[in-house]
Every structure is written in structure tokens, then in C-alpha cells.
Amino acid sequence: MNLLAGLEEFDPGSLKRSELVEVEGVPLLDTTAANQELLRSFKAQPDDLLICTYPKAGTTWVQEIVDMLQHRGDKQKCARAPMYERIPFIDLFPIKPIPSGLEMAEAMPSPRTLKSHLPVQLLPPSFWEQNCKIIYVARNVKDNMVSYFHFHRMNQGMPEPGNWDQFLENFLIGRITWGSWFDHVRGWWEAKDRHPILYLFYEDMKEDPAREIKKIAQFLGLELPNPLLKEIIEHTKFETMKDNPMANYCTLPAFIMDHNLSPFMRKGTVGDWKEHLTVAQSEKIDDLCSQLLAGSGLDFRMEL
Known about the structure:
- The protein is 42% helix and 9% strand.
- The chain is an alpha/beta fold.
- The strands form two sheets. It has a four-stranded parallel sheet with strand order 4-3-5-6, sandwiched between helices.
- Helix 13 packs across helix 14.
- The radius of gyration is 18 Å and the shape is globular.
- It starts with a helix and ends in a 12-residue tail after the last helix.
- Keywords: Cytoplasm, Transferase.
């Protein structure tokens, strides 16, 4: 099941920016919402691994780390296909003839590694029933928001973002694809007490990649000798991945992702929000974090 082959038959003129449609109070892409029943009935298998995040929280980074771990550092195997084919995105339903993430997942042999941006309550129930391992990555709200804004600008299938101030307001009230950041990170944080979920923080990964990669290897039950660890750290550095066509989404045509508007891998730093937020906006977000994450035990670092 080849996504690039589907693209060759695709009419660029048929691509339009998505509209938001609510499913159980969560705004989703209209195509995802239209296929909600199909998604809910997806049959997870016990040896499936799911990588889940709020969008632009380090998803591709963790995917590449996991792929390197699973293939014992074999870079040729990790270059077998672009990331979106190696690890299907189950909640993505592009226009035909491009295959959906579900179709790609169902065509894959076991064991499968899959990706999702769904909030905890919309995940297909079979993942819970099969007790699948899940890696969740969370990123501080301010950097996450900035990165998501630029992603909306460059991804021509996402809803129109409007200007920065409009996007900021929509983001903070959760009127945005995959819903409220606050609900998303909190929902998955609470789920980790009931399910085999490794909950990682983007800021921790930037601070000490070796420590966090060791956590992932331990969670997956994989040995991680020192030479392999060093190789994975080097291969998954932001600068390396930004130049890796199998990870940086440059293999997609510009009518889908326009890297001239903003690269898919833009900065990969902690604290870039200071270039975008006013003092008043920053303080408003701090207040919202205090209210909406109160009592959860969740604590995010806004800088390193």
C-alpha cells in the first residue's frame, strides 16, 4: 500500500483546506470525522505499538528513534520509505486515490508501529482491549502552539489558520484540529495510570536525549548497548533529521506541504515562543495552565 503511488494519480486541483467537524465535542478534520465509525472499529493487535501526541509535539522525532531501536541502528532499513509510510497515521483520511492511514496499517505485517493524534477518549477501543503499548509525547503549550501555527500555514490540507492572533485565540479555546491541548495532554496523563503508556516530555528529550532514549528502549524491552545509543542520538538530532528526506516530509509535493512557506522541521527548540507571544499573551497562557492543569501533577517547562 503505497502513498506516493497514490499521489501520482492525484489531481492537485481537488485538494482544498479541510473544515472542522466536531466528534464528541472534539474538532477533527472533516474527512476524519466522516470516517469515525471506520476508525472506531479498527482492530488493534496485541503487539501493536502506538505513538501518540498532540500535533507538533515531537512525533516524528520519537518515530525515528523507535524505528532506529527496532532496526538496531540499521540506517538503510530506516531509509526504506518516508516516515508516513513506515509508521501509518491511522486518523488521516486523504482524498482518493491516496490510501488512508487505516488502509496502510491494515496492509502491514505484524508487529506494527502506528501513529495517532487522537485524544484519549476517541482512540479506537481495541487499543485498550489488546493492552497495546503506547508512547505519548507532550510539549509545552507555548512552543507547541507556535509550531502548530506554522504547520497550518505550510500544510495545504489543514484548516485555514488565519493570522497569528486569531490562531492563538482558537488554540486556547480548543477550536482547532484534534481539540484542546489542555484536554489532550491531561487526558493521556491520567490514562497512564491505567494502561501501559510511556509519557515523555519534549523538553526532557531536548535536555538529555540519551536518558529519554533509554526510557523508550526499556519500555519496549529492547537492549541498548552504548554504541547503538550514540548512533541513535546522532541520527535523530534535529539538524540530521531536517536533512533526512525519509523524515522531513520533503518527499510530499508542494501542493500538499509547502516548505517555502515554513519547513515541516522548522526550529526544534525550546523557548521559540518568546519570538511570537506578547507578555500579556504569555501571562494569559500561564493563567490557563494553572486553571486547566490544576491538580493533575502535570508540570511543563517553558524554557531550558
